[in-house]
Write a structure and sequence with these properties.
The structure is a single chain. The protein is elongated and about 75 Å long. The protein has one helix spanning about 15-45; strands at about 55-60, 75-80, 85-90, 95-100, 105-110, 115-120, 125-135, 140-145. A hairpin with a 4-residue loop joins strand 7 (about 125-135) and strand 8. The chain is built from 1 helix and 8 strands, in the order H-E-E-E-E-E-E-E-E. Strands 5-4-7-8-1-2-3-6 form an 8-stranded antiparallel beta sheet, with no helix packed on it. It is an alpha+beta fold.
Length: about 140
Protein backbone atom coordinates (compact mmCIF):
# COMPACT_ATOMS: atom_id res chain seq x y z
CA UNK A 1 0.00 0.00 0.00
CA UNK A 2 1.59 3.24 -1.14
CA UNK A 3 0.47 6.62 0.08
CA UNK A 4 1.39 9.55 -2.13
CA UNK A 5 1.22 12.93 -0.46
CA UNK A 6 1.09 15.99 -2.66
CA UNK A 7 2.99 18.76 -0.90
CA UNK A 8 1.01 21.52 -2.57
CA UNK A 9 -2.48 22.68 -1.75
CA UNK A 10 -5.26 23.00 -4.33
CA UNK A 11 -3.99 26.26 -5.80
CA UNK A 12 -0.41 25.01 -6.23
CA UNK A 13 1.13 26.74 -3.23
CA UNK A 14 3.40 24.72 -0.90
CA UNK A 15 1.80 23.43 2.30
CA UNK A 16 3.06 25.25 5.35
CA UNK A 17 4.59 23.53 8.38
CA UNK A 18 1.35 23.56 10.43
CA UNK A 19 -0.62 21.79 7.71
CA UNK A 20 2.17 19.20 7.27
CA UNK A 21 2.08 18.41 11.01
CA UNK A 22 -1.70 18.03 10.81
CA UNK A 23 -1.35 15.58 7.94
CA UNK A 24 1.30 13.58 9.82
CA UNK A 25 -0.87 13.36 12.93
CA UNK A 26 -3.84 12.29 10.81
CA UNK A 27 -1.78 9.52 9.17
CA UNK A 28 -0.50 8.27 12.53
CA UNK A 29 -4.05 8.11 13.90
CA UNK A 30 -5.31 6.20 10.83
CA UNK A 31 -2.42 3.70 10.97
CA UNK A 32 -2.90 3.24 14.71
CA UNK A 33 -6.56 2.41 14.18
CA UNK A 34 -5.81 -0.02 11.34
CA UNK A 35 -2.93 -1.84 13.08
CA UNK A 36 -5.17 -4.10 15.27
CA UNK A 37 -7.11 -5.13 12.15
CA UNK A 38 -3.91 -6.28 10.42
CA UNK A 39 -2.62 -8.19 13.45
CA UNK A 40 -5.91 -9.96 14.18
CA UNK A 41 -6.21 -11.10 10.57
CA UNK A 42 -2.66 -12.45 10.72
CA UNK A 43 -3.25 -14.40 13.94
CA UNK A 44 -6.26 -16.25 12.48
CA UNK A 45 -4.05 -17.78 9.80
CA UNK A 46 -1.58 -19.27 12.27
CA UNK A 47 -2.30 -22.82 13.45
CA UNK A 48 -2.44 -23.49 17.17
CA UNK A 49 0.61 -25.31 18.42
CA UNK A 50 -1.15 -27.33 21.08
CA UNK A 51 -4.64 -28.18 22.27
CA UNK A 52 -3.51 -28.95 25.81
CA UNK A 53 -4.99 -26.95 28.67
CA UNK A 54 -1.92 -26.48 30.91
CA UNK A 55 1.73 -25.71 30.31
CA UNK A 56 4.99 -26.06 32.23
CA UNK A 57 8.61 -25.27 31.42
CA UNK A 58 11.19 -27.79 32.59
CA UNK A 59 14.53 -26.28 33.56
CA UNK A 60 17.82 -28.13 34.01
CA UNK A 61 18.94 -29.21 37.45
CA UNK A 62 22.04 -27.15 38.28
CA UNK A 63 25.16 -29.25 38.70
CA UNK A 64 27.64 -26.42 39.28
CA UNK A 65 27.54 -23.65 41.83
CA UNK A 66 29.83 -21.23 39.99
CA UNK A 67 26.93 -19.06 38.84
CA UNK A 68 23.98 -19.80 41.15
CA UNK A 69 21.65 -17.11 39.75
CA UNK A 70 22.35 -17.65 36.05
CA UNK A 71 19.19 -18.46 34.05
CA UNK A 72 18.90 -21.69 32.10
CA UNK A 73 19.94 -21.42 28.48
CA UNK A 74 17.93 -24.43 27.36
CA UNK A 75 14.63 -25.77 28.60
CA UNK A 76 11.85 -28.17 27.62
CA UNK A 77 8.35 -26.79 27.08
CA UNK A 78 5.47 -29.13 28.01
CA UNK A 79 1.77 -28.75 27.29
CA UNK A 80 -0.48 -31.23 29.04
CA UNK A 81 -4.03 -32.29 29.77
CA UNK A 82 -5.38 -34.96 32.11
CA UNK A 83 -4.60 -37.73 29.62
CA UNK A 84 -1.37 -36.81 27.82
CA UNK A 85 1.65 -34.52 27.80
CA UNK A 86 3.35 -33.08 24.71
CA UNK A 87 7.01 -32.03 24.78
CA UNK A 88 8.76 -29.42 22.67
CA UNK A 89 12.39 -30.47 22.64
CA UNK A 90 15.10 -27.85 22.04
CA UNK A 91 17.60 -28.07 19.20
CA UNK A 92 20.31 -30.61 19.84
CA UNK A 93 18.13 -32.94 21.93
CA UNK A 94 16.69 -35.89 20.03
CA UNK A 95 15.20 -37.94 22.88
CA UNK A 96 14.51 -37.72 26.61
CA UNK A 97 13.83 -40.34 29.24
CA UNK A 98 10.76 -39.13 31.17
CA UNK A 99 9.74 -40.07 34.72
CA UNK A 100 6.54 -38.61 36.16
CA UNK A 101 5.67 -39.50 39.74
CA UNK A 102 3.71 -38.60 42.85
CA UNK A 103 3.24 -40.37 46.20
CA UNK A 104 0.96 -43.05 44.73
CA UNK A 105 2.09 -43.77 41.16
CA UNK A 106 4.88 -43.27 38.68
CA UNK A 107 5.17 -43.45 34.90
CA UNK A 108 8.27 -43.77 32.75
CA UNK A 109 8.69 -43.49 28.99
CA UNK A 110 11.09 -42.30 26.30
CA UNK A 111 9.98 -39.35 24.18
CA UNK A 112 11.62 -38.36 20.90
CA UNK A 113 11.39 -35.31 18.67
CA UNK A 114 9.44 -37.43 16.14
CA UNK A 115 7.01 -38.74 18.79
CA UNK A 116 6.81 -36.00 21.47
CA UNK A 117 3.62 -37.22 23.20
CA UNK A 118 3.35 -39.36 26.34
CA UNK A 119 0.14 -40.72 27.86
CA UNK A 120 -0.32 -39.78 31.53
CA UNK A 121 -3.85 -40.97 32.30
CA UNK A 122 -4.17 -42.34 35.81
CA UNK A 123 -2.01 -39.72 37.50
CA UNK A 124 -3.73 -37.15 39.70
CA UNK A 125 -2.71 -34.31 41.96
CA UNK A 126 0.70 -32.67 42.04
CA UNK A 127 3.33 -34.68 40.17
CA UNK A 128 7.07 -34.29 39.72
CA UNK A 129 8.50 -34.66 36.24
CA UNK A 130 12.14 -35.42 35.50
CA UNK A 131 13.51 -35.66 31.98
CA UNK A 132 17.03 -36.87 31.22
CA UNK A 133 18.10 -35.85 27.73
CA UNK A 134 20.33 -37.87 25.44
CA UNK A 135 22.97 -35.21 26.13
CA UNK A 136 22.97 -36.15 29.84
CA UNK A 137 21.19 -33.00 31.08
CA UNK A 138 18.38 -33.59 33.58
CA UNK A 139 15.36 -31.27 33.48
CA UNK A 140 12.88 -30.85 36.33
CA UNK A 141 9.38 -29.48 36.82
CA UNK A 142 6.01 -29.90 38.53
CA UNK A 143 2.63 -30.81 36.99
CA UNK A 144 -0.78 -30.14 38.53
CA UNK A 145 -3.22 -32.77 37.25
Amino acid sequence: MWIIIDLTNFVGEPINYLNMKTIQIFLVIILTLLFPVFTSADSKDRPKTSTKSKEVILTPIKTTHNRPNAPARIFIHCAYSDSEIEFTLPDGIVSVSVIIYNEEENLADIVTSENPVMEISGLTGECTIECTADTGTTFYGMLEL
